[in-house]
């Protein structure tokens, strides 16, 4: 019996490190020659542009509301236009001397919106608090009580109008869209037809036309002497438009649910509404959170279209503040950048909250 000779196995290479800065750069920026070339080109453009943007926006910028300093040679961005016109930008045509009223009203609504996004405040008293805050909001904005002068709705504007329109339209359009989505999947032909016609009619026209109809055409069909406030008409128009898109988003979640869920509910003897409330809607809504938040963000930005009916929200108030002042009008670009930053803060916050909601809903699927 011959002895077998021992031959060691060659050592295997060490595993490639996948964590850290260098592996991330290699995987995301220098994965192959095309990615590396794009990284170098884009990086070169940024190295060329960023110093100039920094110089214009910060280093050489004028921060004081001094027109001569903004017009001086070599001056960068004139952020002084914001310091000079911020009251009109944020409040629109609302009386400046009464500016404390929309500031308090908007602060209360924003604070309540933040509270409503925190799970520990999801209690029954939150609905009552919403009713109270909305009542205080409209009392402060309109006045006529406690010695406050009356400010009609056609003078409301700026950030308070943007937040109010977007908040109320989102809150009202979601339940309406939910009902329409269920109606489109109903077995009753009449209900299904009504919902289909509503969704296709609203989605087939731009929001501007809906606002135009609500503001100028709808009063023509009202009885003689009957008028509805223009803000109410605009709010109804935005809500109906938003509800149609919300309904289609929710319907996508309903269709994605396996048919076995409905069959299991029928086996348990659950009624239609019990099935929807306990089984179908919780799963369907969890699947369409990104789509719903996308609609909400779009609705927040679409409030800028109310300028077509002479309601000056945040973006319209910027034009109102600078269009009539030829001295500061050349610096309207800085105003647009500032308003874009305000929109970005709100939209980015909504997006991050959506990510948090998705993470909470998907905890049961995580391993």
Outline:
The protein is 67% helix and 0% strand. The chain has 367 residues and is mostly helical.
**Number of self-contained structural domains:** 2
CATH homolog superfamily of the largest domain = MetI-like
Number of strands: 0
Q: Separation of termini?
A: 54 Å
Summarize the helix and strand pattern as letters.
Answer: HHHHHHHHHHHHHHH
- Work out the radius of gyration: 28 Å
Q: What would CATH call the class of the largest domain?
A: Mainly Alpha
Largest sheet: none
Mean pLDDT: 88
Instruction: Tell me which CATH architecture of the largest domain applies here.
Output: Orthogonal Bundle
How many H/I helices? 15
Structural class given helices, strands, pairing?
Answer: mainly alpha
Which term fits the overall shape? flat
CATH topology of the largest domain: MetI-like fold
Spans of at least 5 consecutive residues whose pLDDT stays below 50 are: none
State the share of residues found in helices, binned by percent: 55-70%
Strand content: under 5%
């Amino acid at each position: 019996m011959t002895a077998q000779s021992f031959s060691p196995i060659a050592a295997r290479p060490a595993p490639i490190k996948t964590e850290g800065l260098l592996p991330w750069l290699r995987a995301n920026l220098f994965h192959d020659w095309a990615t590396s070339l794009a990284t170098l080109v884009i990086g070169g453009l940024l190295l060329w542009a960023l110093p100039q943007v920094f110089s214009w926006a910060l280093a050489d910028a004028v921060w004081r509301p001094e027109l001569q300093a903004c017009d001086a040679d070599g001056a960068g961005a004139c952020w002084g236009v914001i310091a000079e016109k911020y009251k009109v930008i944020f409040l629109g045509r609302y009386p400046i001397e009464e500016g404390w009223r929309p500031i308090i009203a908007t602060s209360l609504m924003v604070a309540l919106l933040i509270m409503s996004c925190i799970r520990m405040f999801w209690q029954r008293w939150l609905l009552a608090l919403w009713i109270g805050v909305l009542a205080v909001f409209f009392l402060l904005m309109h006045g006529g009580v406690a010695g406050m002068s009356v400010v009609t709705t056609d003078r409301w504007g700026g950030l308070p109008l943007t937040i109010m329109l977007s908040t109320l339209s989102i809150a009202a359009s979601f339940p309406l869209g939910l009902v329409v989505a269920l109606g489109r999947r109903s077995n009753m032909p009449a209900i299904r037809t009504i919902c289909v016609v509503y969704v296709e009619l609203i989605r087939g026209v731009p929001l501007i036309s809906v606002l135009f109809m609500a503001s100028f055409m709808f009063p023509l069909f009202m009885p003689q002497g009957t008028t509805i406030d223009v803000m109410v008409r605009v709010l109804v128009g935005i809500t109906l438009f938003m509800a149609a898109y919300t309904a289609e988003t929710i319907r996508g979640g309903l269709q994605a649910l396996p048919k076995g869920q409905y069959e299991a509910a029928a086996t348990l003897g659950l009624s239609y509404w019990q099935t929807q409330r306990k089984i179908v809607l919780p799963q369907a809504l969890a699947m369409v959170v990104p789509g719903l938040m996308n609609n909400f963000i779009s609705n927040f930005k679409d409030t800028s279209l109310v300028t077509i009916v002479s309601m000056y929200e945040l973006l319209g108030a910027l034009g109102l503040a600078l269009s009539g002042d030829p001295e500061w009008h050349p610096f309207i670009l800085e105003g647009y950048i500032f308003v874009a930053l305000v929109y970005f803060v709100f939209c980015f916050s909504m997006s991050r909250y959506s990510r948090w909601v998705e993470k909470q809903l998907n905890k049961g699927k995580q391993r």
